[in-house]
């Protein structure tokens, strides 16, 4: 494809800047280090990564991919990248040429466009062409400068504080999201970074960690980061399901759970994980297994004491492609499980969380203090996860086993002190860039037994978890 005169001038501009690139990286090391740190948070090591507009390849190298490919239209930038990082693949091509993209060795786990939307001639067409390099699990990562900083950045370039720039389109966040929508990509999360992009004897780090993350101030940050996924057309093959039912002192609910779970898929497994009951729950599970031979039911005794431990044991033994949690108190009606299944099969989300706080609550289904606590925590976690969450402690959650295994592999990042298992999964899903959605349910009062939740002890622990999550998801 013949280049426009404007594009040829842009290529020549970057060719001339290539020998100075390392100097500018060193001069603004704090800015680039923070960028790399957050991208490392988003992109685990050992992934297949494509960077479009890779420059001299320093960002791609810093991500330590198993297969890293960088594309840039500046031959001088590419020559430097090849010399500095011979273990990576660098291609001199225009990312806006679809045929050039088709020649790349895809698909990729992550595709990065770092500060290139401002020089692209047709953003929507280029994003659309990227689908040929994507799988349903691919994540597109776009970084760009906040348009409010345009005068400051232009001044910085003029007085020699930053590399000269040819950015022509200072786009707003809504414009970027509209381009994603036009190109059939769906926003998973967005983040704001670097309120103060200078080290200043540690003041920059302090300011960015604690002020730049706050709900209002973050909109003034220099950096905006978007993570998107290809819009799903749904699953071609219906997945098998394992429903894990943690239970303690739930003798009267075991048979009801089995009877009430609809046969909403062809291959369904039920796993009861019993936790030190005193009312014969484990024996009742055994009786029910013999009473329903047509259903694939298994039972296990947990060694630990918390619900989170029971869930992990059940997931470990699960054979289904899709994992579900159903609390044995049946306050979430088992009849609602097909709604969760269909949400996944239709491609609506990758992590489905139930929410009890949309429909009116049945009398005594949730005490007032619990209700208020859930509402407060939902606001906090929506901010922490950058995805809307209205009910953090609803016991019913659904995710693919492959995604759970990724969460489990990264569990040490957050620590293992969540007694419920809800936050362990929610944090892990956010860290894994999964699309989180919610399915409203009508929360019922218990028909048997007593709640296993100690409101004040667990509430204090959850507050500690918010602080811990702030450190791990925001202030780093």
Question: What report would you give on this structure?
Answer:
Helices cover 38% and strands 17% of the residues. The chain has two domains: 5-230, Rossmann fold, CATH 3.40.50; 241-473, Spore Coat Polysaccharide Biosynthesis Protein SpsA, Chain A. The chain is α/β, with parallel strands linked by helices. Helix 15 runs parallel beside helix 18 (455-473) and helix 16 (401-409) packs across helix 17 (422-431). The chain is elongated and about 80 Å long. Strands 3-2-1-4-5-7-6 form a seven-stranded mixed β-sheet, with helices on both faces. It is built from 18 helices and 14 strands. Strand 8 (241-247), helix 11 and strand 9 (268-274) form a beta-alpha-beta unit. The model has no long low-confidence stretch (mean pLDDT 92). The chain has helices at residues 5-17, 21-27, 29-42, 58-62, 75-84, 98-102, 123-129, 150-158, 173-182, 203-210, 254-260, 281-291, 307-317, 337-345, 368-385, 401-409, 422-431, 455-473; strands spanning 48-52, 67-72, 89-92, 110-114, 139-145, 185-193, 223-230, 241-247, 268-274, 296-301, 322-325, 351-355, 397-400, 436-440.
Question: What would a concise description of this structure say?
Answer:
The chain is α/β, with parallel strands linked by helices and 476 residues long.
How much beta, percentage-wise?
Answer: 15-25%
Q: What is the CATH topology descriptor of the largest domain?
A: Spore Coat Polysaccharide Biosynthesis Protein SpsA, Chain A
How many helices? 18
Distance between the termini: 44 Å
Number of domains: 2
Structural class based on helices, strands and sheet pairing: alpha/beta
CATH class of the largest domain: Alpha Beta
CATH superfamily of the largest domain, please?
Spore Coat Polysaccharide Biosynthesis Protein SpsA, Chain A
């Amino acid at each position: 494809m013949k280049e426009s005169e404007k594009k040829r001038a842009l290529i020549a501009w970057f060719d001339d800047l290539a020998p100075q690139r390392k100097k500018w990286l060193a001069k603004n090391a704090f800015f680039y280090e923070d960028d790399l740190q957050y991208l490392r948070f988003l992109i685990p090591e050992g992934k297949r990564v494509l960077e479009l507009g890779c420059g001299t390849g320093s960002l791609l190298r810093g991500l330590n991919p198993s297969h890293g490919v960088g594309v840039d239209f500046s031959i001088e930038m590419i020559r430097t990248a090849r010399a500095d990082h011979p273990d990576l693949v660098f291609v001199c091509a225009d990312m806006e040429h679809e045929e050039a993209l088709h020649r790349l060795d895809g698909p990729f786990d992550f595709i990065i466009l770092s500060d290139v939307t401002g020089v692209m001639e047709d953003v929507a067409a280029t994003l659309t062409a990227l689908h040929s390099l994507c799988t349903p699990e691919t994540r597109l990562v776009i970084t760009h400068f906040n348009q409010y900083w345009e005068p400051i950045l232009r001044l910085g370039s003029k007085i020699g504080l930053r590399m000269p720039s040819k950015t022509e389109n200072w786009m707003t966040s809504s414009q970027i999201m509209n381009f994603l929508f036009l190109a059939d990509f769906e926003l998973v999360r967005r983040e704001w970074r670097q309120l103060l992009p200078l080290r200043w004897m540690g003041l920059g780090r302090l300011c960015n960690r604690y002020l730049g993350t706050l709900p209002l101030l973050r909109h003034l940050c220099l950096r905006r980061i978007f993570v998107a996924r290809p819009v799903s057309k749904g699953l071609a093959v219906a997945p098998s399901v394992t429903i894990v039912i943690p239970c303690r002192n739930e003798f009267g609910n075991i048979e009801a759970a089995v009877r009430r779970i609809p046969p909403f898929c062809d291959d369904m497994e039920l796993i009861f994980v019993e936790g030190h009951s005193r009312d014969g729950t484990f024996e009742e599970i055994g009786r029910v297994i013999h009473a329903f031979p047509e259903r694939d039911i298994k039972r296990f005794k947990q060694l630990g004491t918390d619900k989170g431990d029971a869930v992990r044991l059940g997931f470990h033994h699960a054979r289904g492609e899709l994992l579900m949690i159903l609390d044995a108190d049946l306050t979430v009606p088992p009849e609602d499980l097909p709604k969760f299944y269909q949400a996944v099969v239709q491609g609506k989300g990758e992590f489905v969380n139930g929410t009890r706080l949309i429909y009116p609550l049945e009398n005594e289904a949730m005490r007032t203090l619990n209700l208020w606590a859930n509402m407060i925590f939902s606001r906090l976690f929506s901010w922490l996860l950058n995805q809307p969450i209205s009910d953090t402690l609803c016991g019913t959650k659904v995710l693919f086993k492959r995604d759970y295994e990724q969460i489990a592999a990264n569990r040490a990042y957050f620590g293992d002190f969540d007694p419920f298992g809800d936050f362990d999964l929610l944090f892990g899903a956010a860290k894994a860039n999964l699309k989180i959605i919610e399915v409203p349910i009508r929360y019922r009062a218990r028909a048997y037994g007593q709640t296993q939740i100690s409101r004040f002890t667990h509430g204090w622990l959850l507050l500690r978890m918010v602080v811990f999550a702030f450190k791990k998801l925001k202030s780093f």
